[in-house]
Amino acid sequence: MKRVLLASLGVLTVATVILHRTLPAQRSAVPVITWVTDDDQVRHDTVALFGRWLAENRLPPVDLRIDLRDNTPTGPSKALIQGVSGVADDLTDVYMNQLEPFQKAGILLDVTDIARARGFGAALTYPAVRSDLEVMGRQYGFPRAVDSALLWVNRATFARYGIAEPPSRWNWDQFEEIGLRFVAAANPPGSRQRVFFLNRVWLPLLRRGLGLSTFNETMTRCTLDDPRNVEVLRRAYRWTVTDRLLPTQAEQYALVSDATGFDSSFSLFASGRFAMIYEGLWALIRLHPRGEFQLRVVEPFTGGFPNVEVGSGAVCVYAGSPHPELACLFLQFLASRPFNLLVARSGDSMPPLPSYARTDDFLHPPHHPGEAGVQEFFADTTRDCGIAASRSPFILPNEVFRIDREEFEEVLAGRASPEEGARVAAARINAGIALNLAAEPGLRRLYRERCDVQERIAERRAAGRPVPANWISDPFHLAYYRARGWLDKGGVP
Amino acid sequence: MKVQSARRRCLVGVAFLLPNIAGFCAFTLIPLALSFMMAFTDWDFLRRNVFRHDPLQWVGLGNFTRLLVDTQFWRDLGNTCFLMIGLPFAIAGSLGAALLLNRIGGRRCRTGPALAAATLVLAASGLVLLRGGMPETGVWFLFGVLAATVLLAGVLTRGSVYRTLFYLPHFTAGVATYVLWKKLYHPTSGPINLALNPLLDQVSSAVRFMPGLFSIGLPLAGAAAALTLVAWHLLRLRRRWDDSEAGISAIVTGSLGPAIPLGFLLARLGLPGAASAAVALAAAALAAALISRRPRPWGPKCAADAGLGLEVALALALIPLLAILLACVVIGPSLPARAQAGFEAPDWLGDYGSAKPALMIMAMWAAIGSNNMILYLAGLSNIPQELYEAADMDGASPRQRFWNITWPQLAPVTFFIAVMGVIEGLQGGFEMARTMTAGGPAGSTTTLSYFVYTEGFETGRLGYAAAVAWVLFALVFVLSLLNFRYGNRNAND
User: Are residues B324 and B360 in the same domain?
Assistant: First the structure.
C-alpha cells in the first residue's frame, strides 16, 4: 500500500511538472498576456493587428491570447470574485455596471498617468462614455467600442402587416398608436398573441424622456419616488399587460435556455415576432448569422426630451497583472488608427475615436445593402442625444438595477401599484446608500460635500438662477440642464 | 519495541488519514469557522480583499438584527417554506414508486430482454420511416413504440428499466433538467400547455353549456369535499386522542391544519386579514378544546407532545388539499363569466401566482425518483416476509397490510427522508431559480440560498450573507431537532 501511495505521489508530481511546462507562459518565447473577451472574428483580427502594430512601432513583442468571457448571468460576479481573489486575466472587457464594483474592489489598474503619457486619455473618446472609463476623475481603461441603444426596425415585418414604419423621432403617444394598430394586424382575433411590437423598454430612458433621472443632480439621493416615475411605470404596465405591445419578461425567458432572455430577442426579431428590438449597433453581430434583413433604426420614443443611453465596451488592466506595462500597450493600441479603422470596417460598433465614425469605412459598409444608413444614424444620434448611464458613487449600479427591476416586476405582476412600486424602489435604493455610508467612512465626506452642493443647486433653481456645470455629477441632469439653458455659462466642469 | 511499533502504526494511520483531514480542514472546517466569524463583521469583499485592506469592523449582532427588519429576507424565507409544501407529496410519491417497483420486481420472466429488443427494433424501424419522410403520424408511431418498449421492457425485466427511468432525474445534471422543464412550461409552445389548452377549451365549452353546474355545483362539491376532509381529519384526531396516541400539542397542531386554509378563504372573501386570522384561530382552538376535553376511556395518559410529528406532516399535506378544494368554492361562481373568453393555461414561470407552484411541481418530480425511492426500495426489501404471511393468515386486506406492516416498518426510512428533505428544502432552490426564473417574477421564486448568493456575490456583503447562512443553519438545526424529538423514527422497534 505504501508503494502504491508513493507511486501515486510520484505520478502526481510528474503530472504537475508537465502541466506547468505546458502553460502558455512557459511555452511562449515572449510574455503572454490574456484578454477576457468574446470569441469572434473581430477579436481575432484585433489580436493579429495588435501583433503587427507592436512590430511596426518597434515595441516589445507580446503574445496576446483570448480567454472566453462568461456571458451567463453569473459572469460578472464570477469575474469579480476571480479578481478579488487575485487570479484574473491581464486584460478584461468591462461593460455596463461593472466598472464601479471592479474599481471599488481595487482590481483595476489606475491608468490615468500612463494614459496621459502614452496618448490614450479619456478625452480622446466620446464625452458621454467618459463615465464608463473614469471613476472620481481617475481613468481605468479605454473603450474597445462605443455603442448606444436604439430601436431596430424590421421593415419586412411592418410591410407584411401593412403598417407604416415609425418616424425617426417619435413620442409615447405615437408609439401607442402605431403599436396598437400593429398588434391588432399581426395577431388574428381570438388567437393567442405571438407577435409583439417591441421586445422591451428601458425604464431609465423613459424617465429621462420626462426629465427625470434615477438620482438627483449630485447623485446623493434616489428620485424614483417622483410622480414622473409613477407615470413611467403606469405606461410600461399598460404597454406590457393591457395593450400587449411588449412581451412579459417571462415570455421572453421561456424561449431560451438561460434565464436572461438575452439571445431570444434576435431570433424573434429575425422571424418577425418582434417588429422592433431595443439594442445597440452590436445587434448586427447577432443578426448577420440569421440572414439578410431590410433594417432601419429609429430613436427610442420619449416623453418629450430626446435621449439615448451611450455606453462603451471598455478594456481595463487587472491590478494584479504580472505585465501591467505590456497590458497598457494594448490600451494604447485601442486608440491607434489601425484599430479604429478595423472597428469602423466591422460596422457592428462605433470606433472609440469619434472621428473614425465619420469615415466612409464606417458609414457605408459594402456587404449588407439592407442596412444602408444604419451606421450613420447611430453615429449622429450618439453625437446629438447620447448620455451616459447614471451611476452614483454611493451605491453599486448593479444593486440599483436589481431593485429597479424587482419593483417593476411587482407592478407588472399586479402586486404593487405604480405609486407603491416607485416609492418602494426609491426607499430601497436610499436605504442601500445609507447602508454603504454607514459601512464606509471614506464615502461620508464626499456625501456631505455633495449634499451641501445639492442644497445650493436647489436654492439656485428655486430662485430661477443658472447652476454651474461642475456642481452637477449626474450625466443626465448635466445634459438636461444644458438643453434647458439652466447652466451657468461661466461654470466649467 | 512494542511501544515503538504502536507509535509507528499510529503514525502510519495518521499519514493515511492526513489527506482527508487536510481536505476537511481546508474546505470545510476552516471556511465554516471563518464564515461564523464573518457573520459578526461588516466584511464587504469590495473593500477587503487581495487589493484593498480596509479595516474589518466587528458589528456584533448587527447583521442578525438587520435581517430581522429586512423585508427581502422574510419574503425569501416565505418562498423557501412555500416550496417545501411539496415535501410530503414527494415522500408519498417516492413511497408509491418504490411500492410499484417492488411489486413489479417480484415477477419473473426470462423472455423480457428478447421482447424488449424486438420492441427496440420496431422503434428503430419507426425512426427510419420518419427519417425517410414519414409525416407527423410517424412521430406518434415512434412515441407509441417507445412507450411500448418502456412498458414491456419494464414489466418483463423485473422493473430494472423502471428503476433506471425513475432514478434518471437524480443523476441527470440539474441545469439540464431545469432547461428541459423550462421548455415544458413554455406558455405557448410548451407541451404542458399544449396538452392543457384543448382540455381547457373543452372545459370552457362545458361551462358555457352548463353554467349552473359549474357556478353552483362546483362550489358545493368543493365545499362538501372540504367539509368531509375536515370532518375525517377531526374524527381521526379524536380517535387518536381517545387511544392516547396524540397529546395536546398534536391535537392543537392537527386543528391548526384546516384552520390555515380557512383563514385564507375568509381573507379572499373580503374579511380583513386580522379578522380572518382571528376567526381561523378561534375555530382551531374550539376544535382542539372539544377534542381534548374528552375523557380517555381506554388509553393511559400520554405525553403532551406525543404524535406531534405525524400531525405536522399530515397538516402539511392537508393544507394544499384544502386550499385546492376551497379554491373551487371561491372560483366556481365566476367560472361562467370567465369561460366566455375561454380559459387559458397558466403562464407557469411568468405569472407571480404560478411560478412558485411550477417550481414546486418540478422539485417534486425530481424528488420522487431520487435517493428517497432507492431508500424505500431497500426498506421494503428488509421487511420480514413472515409479517405479511402472518397477516395473510389473519385475513388482512392489502390496505391493512400496508398501514399495519409496511408503513410502520418503513418509519425509520421515512424519518430519515423527512429530515434530509427538510434540510435540502431549506438549503436548496438556488440553481433552479437561477436557471428558470432568475428569482422572478417580482422575487416570487427567490429562495434563501439565492438571497445568500445575491448578498454575498453580487453586492459583496459577505458578512451579511454569512449571517443569513447561519440563520439558515439554525433553522435547519432546530427543525432537525424537532424532527428527532417528534418524528416517528422508531415505530418498528
Answer: no
State how far residue B456 is from chain A, nearest Cα, in angstroms. 10
Q: Taking CA atoms, what residue in A is nearest to B12?
A: A2
Strand A295-298 relative to strand A308-317: parallel, antiparallel, unpaired? unpaired
Q: Is the peptide bond before B19 cis (omega within 30 degrees of 0)?
A: no
| Residues of B whose CB is below 8 A from A257 | 179, 182
Answer for the pair A170, A301: CB distance below 8 angstroms, yes or no: yes
Asked if residues B437 and B359 have their Cβ atoms less than 8 Å apart, the reply is: yes
Residue A492's pLDDT is 45
CB contact under 8 A, A253 and B438: yes
Assigned CATH for A2-142+314-357 = 3.40.190.10
Interface residues of B toward A, Cβ cutoff 8 Å, are: 42, 44-47, 49-52, 54, 57, 179, 182-183, 185-188, 190, 344, 347, 349-352, 355, 434-438, 440-444, 454, 457-460
Cβ pair B57:A398 closer than 8 A: no
CA-angle at B468, arms to B464 and B473, nearest 5°? 145
Q: Which residues pair with A320 in a beta bridge?
A: none
SS3 percent helix, strand, coil of chain B, rounded to 5, is 75, 0, 20
Task: Report the gap between the CA of B54 and the closest CA in chain A (Å).
Answer: 9
Q: Which of A235, A236, A389 is nearest to A307 (CA)?
A: A389
Q: Give domain status of residue B281, yes or no.
A: yes
Element (H, E) at B223: helix B218-242
The pLDDT of residue A415: 86
- CB contacts, 8 Å: B57 with chain A: 439
* Contact present, A196 and A399 (Cβ < 8 Å): no
**Digit-coded pLDDT (tens) for A380-414:** 999 889 999 999 999 988 889 989 988 998 998 88
Is B250 domain-assigned?
yes
Closest-CA residue of A relative to B444 is A410
CB B486 within 8 A of CB B304: no
A-chain CB neighbours of B352 within 8 Å are 413-415
Mean pLDDT, rounded, for A17-44 = 84
pLDDT, tens digit (0-9, with 9 covering 90-100), for A93-143 = 988 778 888 998 999 999 999 999 999 999 999 988 888 899 888 999 999
Residue B102 shares a structural domain with residue B66? yes
Rounded CA separation B309/B250 (Å): 8
Instruction: Give the helix ranges, DSSP H, for B57-111.
Output: 62-68, 71-83, 87-105
Structure ipTM = 0.80
- B145 contacts B122 by C-beta, under 8 angstroms: yes
**How far apart are the C-alpha atoms of A418 and A238, rounded to whole Å?**
11
* A308-338 pLDDT, tens digit each: 999 888 999 999 999 999 999 999 999 999 9
Residue A34 CA to residue A22 CA, distance in Å, equals 16
pTM score: 0.81
Which of B295, B321, B340 is a domain's end point?
A: B340
* b/e burial code for range B62-85 (CB count within 10 A of at least 16 → b): bbbebbeebebbeebbebbebbbb
Q: Mean of the pLDDT values across residues B303-312?
A: 79
8 A C-beta contact, residue A348 and residue A368 = no
Please state the domain extents for chain A.
2-142+314-357
**How many Cα atoms occupy the beta-carbon half-sphere of B473 within 13 Å?**
10
In a shared domain, residues B369 and B314: no
Q: Has residue B94 been placed in a domain?
A: yes
Q: Number of structural domains, chain B? A: 2
- Domain carrying residue B486: 42-107+348-493
| Nearest chain A residue to B176, by CA | A257
Residue of B nearest to A254 (CA): B186
